[in-house]
beta-glucosidase
Amino acid sequence: MLKKLIVTALFSPLVFHGVQAQNQPKTEMDMKVEELLSKMTLEEKIGQLNQYTARWEMTGPAPTGSSEQELLEEIKSGQVGSMLNVTGAEATLKAQKLAVENTRLGIPLIFGYDVIHGYKTIFPIPLATASSWDPSAAELSAHIAAVEAAASGLHWTFAPMVDISRDARWGRVMEGAGEDPYLGAKMAAAQVRGFQGDDLSADNTIAACAKHFAAYGFAEAGRDYNTVEISEYTLQNMVLPPFKAAVEAGVATLMNSFNVIGGLPSTANPHLLRDILKGEWDFDGFVVSDWNSIGEIKNHGVAPDLKEAARLAIIAGSDMDMEGYSYVPFLKELVDEGLVDEALIDDAARRVLRIKFELGLFDDPYKYSKLDEQGLVLNEEHLQAAREVARKSIVLLKNENNLLPLKKEGQKIAVIGDLADDKDSPIGSWRAQAIAGSAVSLLEGIENAVADQNAVAFERGPVYVSNEPEFTKHLQINHTDPTGIDQAVELAQKMDVVVLALGENCFQSGEGRSQTDIGLKGYQQQLLEAVYEVNKNVVVVLMNGRPLVIDWMAEKVPAIVEAWHLGSEAGNAIADVLFGDYNPAGKLTVSFPRSVGQCPIYYNHFSTARADDTGTVFWSHYTDESNDPLFPFGYGLSYTTFEYSNLKLSASEISADQTLKVRVEVKNTGTVDGEEVVQLYVHDLYGSIARPVKELKGFEKIFLKAGESKTVEFELTADDLAFFGADRSWKAEPGDFNLWVGTNSQMGLKGAFKLK
Ligand code: GLC
């Protein structure tokens, strides 16, 4: 009796958020969903909420459940609604036939896969593309990924990953857009548009999945899967905006996160899933758990067994169980025992079926499995697009004495470093169906660019990572054999300039790759110092998936190019920048720390009550390091220079229904054409809760010919200044604001205004 009461108490309007509202059929498709739902048994509805991985590609711990043969039988008996890690026309066709031709109602499967930054044509990792500050580049990357994935039988990608992250120790920082919710929201919406287009039933679009809901990127100490302790204010103001932008862009699904927030697993968090997502945001898609995150409710110690974990998850609003073996075994029992209302199962199944209808799978369940790789995959057009996005993603961190751009002739160039000849690392982590070793290496890119290849010579230096299988490769960094430094030094002595590739192997970042040391690993620092000792004309090309501690390099080396892991066309894109065929315009979307001890470090921090150096020890600082990052959010140089002037505000104060216009003049004061990302930041001086010292509220990427000037205008309204405050509502609060317009988060022309 007590349990029934507890369950009844749970079914308050609060928990039912997002259930009643969606019951009213709105469209013809909704009517079809209702008609199908009405024919389904409870077991068949539960089957739609079950997702298994193919046994041949693992993206999580080995499945504890069915064998492959058992899995195939379960598909035929209608116990499986979705598969992940099934790719290619043949495999998807085989699995789809099992479901459509054997189950009672012939409901098709939906095939999901991690198409994060390309399917076979690989684009820059998302952290790199975000550095372009060009949402159209993110949209193009996602669109081409969708074309190739759909041509290979896939319906759904587990992307975009929109987790805000402030801690470079966390390996998955490579997968998101960095530390800022405003930029993250723009990139999230752009990727949803790219993947989904405006018609999910088209054969070149796929359903997207905003993940990981929520706050996965705030794992304590940057350790993957670790506890998250954040306030509702940080959740609302920093974590949720990219998810909300994805929902407003029409994202079909969300994936919840492994972590607890304040002790409650996100997979079993009705406040996140019902109050906010399905209630306030009126989300009508479905939520898939992350890999066994339902089963892991038990590991968190919030359920004694899988049955209770299943009950908590379905009530909280997790619709589909990925590899958790929790819903199929226990949901019917829970309904029969009156512990779960069948209406919740109906709501979850309705959401899944609606996406399958929108994908056109009921019209032709095999439609996506026909076009496999008919010239739609890894073609020249896609590679050119990958090169274009890659060039835009490169950030010029330093360029003293105009060492860059290099000359295509008349300059002897030493290319040094294991990563320079690495055709695999540029593909990055989360590489879908990329062909291993298929990227254009930095060395190849340079050789392609110069007039005479004899002007280029290569020395590997010490091997960086030995060739091991993917899942252990990041552990095989060479710390024992410095062979190669002497040869590299000997070459450097003879050449005019050295291009030195340093950074990370592709599997040093990504899921499960947190690191306590984010400096140059192996013999890289020794190689750098030895080469620099004999030739000061060093251009370091960083190839990495996270901010690195590069303080020595930043002080000594005249030129540093942040090239991330740029995908299939990496070497060509980097060469385009090195030789000036493309003037770099990228800007960091993550702060680079001076020391790992500063992590987490981010620009949009609170002031604290002791921000100023008082000449005593009694202020917020380190005794052994600066508070400032090595390179701040929004930072990036160009081969030209830009001057900001004439900042003008249309008013000194606005009321809640007025718009403030902010104008600034930007001039290209250099000798080459270039692009600049003009950034607008505000500081709300006082609020009902502490407010960040700066918040990005606008940016515009402009092109200026040498000597050209343009006026850039931003508009600010009360909506732009709204935040989740002490009264737990979203609104702007009257008061004084400062604003800056400039080239990064630390520099800019300052203005002030009042919101009445
Ligand atoms: C992984 C990741 C998630 C991915 C899923 C399926 O554990 O956390 O981002 O989409 O499993 O591969």
